[in-house]
UniProtKB/TrEMBL annotation:
Pfam family, one: PEP-CTERM
Species of origin: Phenylobacterium kunshanense
Spans through the membrane: 149-166
NCBIfam families xref list: PEP_CTERM, PEP_CTERM_FxDxF, PEPxxWA-CTERM
InterPro entries in the record: Ice-binding_C (IPR013424)
N-terminal signal peptide: 1-25
Protein name per the record: Ice-binding protein C-terminal domain-containing protein
Keywords associated with the record: Membrane, Signal, Transmembrane, Transmembrane helix
Sequence ranges assigned to domain Ice-binding protein C-terminal in this UniProt record: 145-168
């Protein structure tokens, strides 16, 4: 499963694009390694936000599965503060967690479908030198129960064996 999913994740990582307001050159997105179960983590964020208001847009191409999102921002003073006006994925607004010096917003249990537009939009105002970071955890949809070729061969042999036993039993009953 991992060997099949690894190229898909690599292609999706290449397909991710992001745009940010003018001076937001420090916007980033990083894909973590794919686990044995096909899950992976994406980290993203923006550092040194100097404009008074900003909009960061991340266009994603995640495979079919489930995603959970969290955004955090921390400040030590007024210039590092972010006042969020909107954080949404595909139009679904994030829930607000703790507000104040350490803030977070989250959106859990998002069902994702490959091929559908997947856009994360973050809008807010900066105190002058703010930053935020976020994490998306992704788990692929469970594959359908499709037997492997070896399993098919065993099933066919099993059905053939059961048929032979039934045929032989019927033959004995007719003879008696």
């Amino acid at each position: 499963m991992k060997s099949v999913l690894a190229p898909v994740v690599a292609a999706l990582a290449a397909a991710v694009s992001l745009t940010a307001a003018g001076a937001q050159a420090a916007t980033y997105i990083n894909y973590g390694p794919t686990g044995a179960d096909g899950g992976f983590t994406i980290t993203f964020g923006n550092t040194g936000i100097t404009g008074s208001s900003f909009t960061d847009v991340f266009d994603l191409a995640l495979p079919t599965g489930r995603g959970d999102f969290v955004i955090t921002s921390t400040m030590s003073g007024g210039s590092q503060n972010i006042t969020w006006s909107s954080v949404a994925f595909n139009g679904d607004e994030f829930s607000a967690g703790v507000m104040g010096w350490n803030e977070f917003r989250f959106l859990n249990g998002v069902e994702l479908t490959l091929g559908e537009g997947q856009q994360l939009v973050l809008k807010g105002a900066s105190g002058g030198n703010a930053s935020y970071s976020g994490v998306i955890t992704f788990m692929p949809a469970a594959p359908g129960a499709v037997p492997e070729p070896g399993a098919w061969a065993l099933m066919i042999l099993g059905f053939g064996g059961a048929g032979a036993v039934l045929r032989r039993a019927r033959g004995r009953a007719a003879f008696a």
